[in-house]
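User: Can you recover a sequence for this backbone? Please restate the input before giving your answer.

Assistant: Of course. Working from this structure:
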């Protein structure tokens, strides 16, 4: 089955619902790849569970269910936050551990939580806080890394690294401390004996130019190496979350997993970006943004609209529509700092709405290309309507600094039916 990755647009599961998995990680078991992430809503930023999806080709996704539903009380109970979920496999037992950032709604009670499970496609059991020297680890943004010998590590904001025990249920050593003051959303990989630690600046859910450090030993010394994407690209409008090792023959390719947050419509409009990382002794880089690419060949596929359509508006409820024949439509458009949400509905020949969602036309750096690729529909004749929502993506830091869009524009430039 041909594997293709479509970046920066919503993915859909077997039920036609958006793949809802943010702050994500990816694990491989046999021929299947499992994606875990935050299961968001479009109205409140509270814990609603951690989701699990699986795929064999990165295009067709199966919703396996909530890997960890909300609890009735405690760290992941009502009014709590659950973020940055990461899943590890114990090299000793083969069982799975799930680590996550838990917090209150003001982000003033951080704690790394722990859950355990027997299978990736079944529900995990929450255990409580992850402990180090008998005390909870009270950091927030976090990631994980597994070394070549199977040893697992917890990464936290500011650049702390904890070695986990063989069961991946407790921290046994603080390997490195305060590598990156001011850094968050850590991710790590190793290639040719060099460790690469990637972090984001603290700009809430806004994108920024992410950067990295290297070391020959996890204990250090760690060397700041600068940006790994072109300066000013805002890491291709993403924030680093995880590095997935894609096995291609005898080669293991590090693949960057980044988020495009979209608050408040995280469930419908936030997306993921996966890109191959180039790493050599001289450093690491992601040299270009690939909207569509094959992990088997590492080659991109150029997509251009077959039909032109120029619709740009910031007037609430103003709309345009397209009739098409086939089983899927792809919409193309432009995003920039003035973009807002567009509401999409696909109607069948009887006028019934068979698919409804939102897409985000905001980006800190202007970008053109795919904005939406519909779920696979029954072969037929359809009409897709795109309307200005009159709402935009905004976020703020704890200090109140505002980030995000300054207007409500949506801009459609073309479409292709298949």
């Amino acid at each position: 089955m041909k594997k293709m990755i479509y970046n920066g647009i919503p993915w859909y599961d077997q039920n036609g619902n958006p793949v809802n998995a943010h702050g994500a990680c990816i694990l491989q078991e046999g021929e299947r790849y499992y994606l875990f992430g935050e299961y968001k809503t479009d109205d409140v930023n509270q814990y609603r569970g951690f989701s699990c999806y699986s795929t064999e080709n990165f295009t067709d996704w199966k919703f396996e269910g909530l890997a960890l539903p909300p609890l009735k009380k405690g760290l992941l109970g009502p009014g709590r936050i659950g973020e940055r979920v990461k899943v590890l496999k114990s090299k000793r037992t083969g069982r799975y551990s799930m680590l996550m950032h838990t917090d209150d709604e003001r982000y003033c009670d951080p704690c790394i939580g722990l859950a355990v499970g027997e299978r990736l496609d079944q529900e995990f059991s929450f255990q409580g806080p992850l402990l180090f020297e008998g005390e909870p680890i009270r950091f927030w943004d976090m990631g994980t890394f597994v070394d070549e010998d199977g040893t697992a590590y917890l990464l936290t904001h500011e650049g702390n690294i904890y070695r986990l025990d063989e069961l991946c249920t407790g921290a046994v050593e603080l390997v490195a401390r305060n590598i990156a003051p001011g850094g968050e959303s850590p991710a790590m990989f190793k290639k040719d004996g060099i460790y690469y630690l990637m972090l984001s600046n603290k700009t809430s859910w806004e994108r920024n130019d992410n950067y990295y450090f290297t070391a020959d030993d996890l204990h250090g010394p760690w060397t700041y190496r600068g940006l790994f994407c072109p300066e000013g690209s805002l890491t291709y409008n993403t924030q680093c979350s995880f590095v997935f090792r894609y096995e291609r023959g005898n080669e293991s390719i590090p693949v960057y997993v980044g988020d495009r947050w979209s608050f408040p419509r995280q469930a419908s409009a936030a997306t993921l970006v996966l890109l191959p990382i180039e790493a050599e002794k001289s450093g690491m880089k992601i040299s270009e943004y690939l909207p569509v690419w094959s992990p088997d060949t590492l080659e991109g596929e150029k997509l251009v609209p077959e039909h032109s359509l120029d619709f740009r508006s910031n007037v609430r409820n103003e709309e345009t529509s397209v009739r098409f024949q086939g089983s899927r439509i792809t919409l193309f458009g432009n995003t920039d700092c003035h973009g807002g949400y567009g509401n999409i509905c696909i109607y069948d020949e009887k006028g019934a709405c068979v698919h409804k969602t939102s897409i985000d036309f905001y980006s800190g750096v202007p970008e053109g290309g795919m904005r939406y690729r519909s779920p696979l529909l029954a072969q037929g004749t359809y009409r897709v309507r795109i309307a200005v929502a009159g709402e935009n993506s905004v976020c703020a830091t704890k200090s109140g600094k505002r980030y995000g869009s300054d207007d409500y524009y949506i801009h459609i430039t073309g479409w292709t039916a298949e």
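That completes the design. The chain has a mean pLDDT of 96.
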